[in-house]
Amino acid sequence: MSEMETQRLACDASGVRTAADILCKGGLVAFPTETVYGLGADARNGKAVARIYAAKGRPAFNPLIVHVCSLAAARRYGVFDADMMRLADQFWPGPLSLVVPLAADHGLSPLVTAGLDTVALRVPEHPLAQTLLTEFDGPVAAPSANPSGQISPTKADHVIAGLAGRINAVIDGGACRVGLESTIVSGAPPALLRPGGVAQEDIEALTGPLARAGTGITAPGQLNSHYAPRAALRLHARTAHSGELLLGFGSVSGDLNLSPTGDLIEAAANLFGHLHMLDAQDRPIAVARIPDTGLGRAINDRLERAAAPR
Ligand code: TXA
Ligand code: MG
After folding, report:
1. Residue minimizing CA distance to atom 1 of ligand 1
2. pLDDT tens string 222-246
3. Would you tell me which of 107, 210, 215, 234 could form a disulfide with 286, CB atoms 3.0–4.6 Å apart?
C-alpha cells in the first residue's frame, strides 16, 4: 500500500477532534485503550475496515472488535440476553469484549464480523478512548495497532515503530494500564473465547462456570464458524458455467464485481456483502481470480475456506 504521513496527535481536545475527523473520512487512527493501542476505523465503512487489514498485513479476515462509548450504544449493534447484560453492567467500561448476535439494522460492514451473524462489542474505559468514541459518535472497529504477527503495542512509540507510513494518525496517550487484550466472552451459554484483562473467576462469579470454547479463536482464520455460502464455490473462474452466478473482479465482470477497477481494498470491502447477495439466489457461485498480493491474500484465504469441501 502507498505510504502516507502518520501524524502523532496530542492527548487533548484538538487531537481528539482531528482523530474523529479522520475516522469520519474513512481513515485509520490508532488510539490508546486501557488494554493495548487499537487501530480504529469506522465500523460502518467497508473500505475503511479493509484498510485496517491492509495496514496490519493480516493474511486473513479475522472478525474485529467494535468499540462504542456505552452499553446503550452497544445495543444498537448487538442483542444482549440476561447473562450478557449482567456482564456489561458489571464490567463496562472495561477490558471485556462480549460476542452477541447482531441486531436488526445494525449497519456494520460485514467485513467487521467476517460475515458472521455475531459481533464482538466492547466499551473501553480509557478516558481518551471514551472521549474519541463520544466525539465520533459511531462504532469503531479496532484490532491491536501492530503489524500482523507482532507484539501488541502498549505505547504510541510502539505503534509508530510498527505502522508509521501505513496509518493516518496515532493519539499519544502514554502507556496502557492493563497491557494485554480484553477478555472475550460469547453468550448462550456463556463461553470464554480469550482470556484477558478481566479475570475468568470474576466473570464466573456472575455467570457460573464458563463453557470451554473449543475453537482456536485467537489464531487468525481459525474460527470454525467462518462464513461459507450454502452453494458450491468455484475459484479462478473466467466465465460462469451453466447455472452458476459469477462474482467478478477487474476485467472479469460478472453478476456482481468485487472491484471493476481491480482495487483490492474495494474488493475486500465488498467481499462478504457480495457473497451474501449471490448466496441468497441459491445457485453455485464462480469467482474470478484475485491476485495473491496485499489484501488479495486475505481475500483468497477466505475464498479458499469457503470453497473447501465440507
Ligand atoms: O483489548 C482488546 O480487545 C484490543 C483493544 C484494541 O480493544 N482489541 C483486540 O482486537 O484485541 P483483535 O482484533 O486483536 O481481537 C479480536 C478477537 C479475535 O481473536 C477474533 O477472533 C475475536 O476477537 N472475535 C471478534 N468478533 C468475533 C465474533 N463475532 N465471534 C467470535 N470471535 C470474535
Ligand atoms: Mg492483536
Report:
1. 181
2. 343 345 677 789 999 999 999 999 9
3. 234
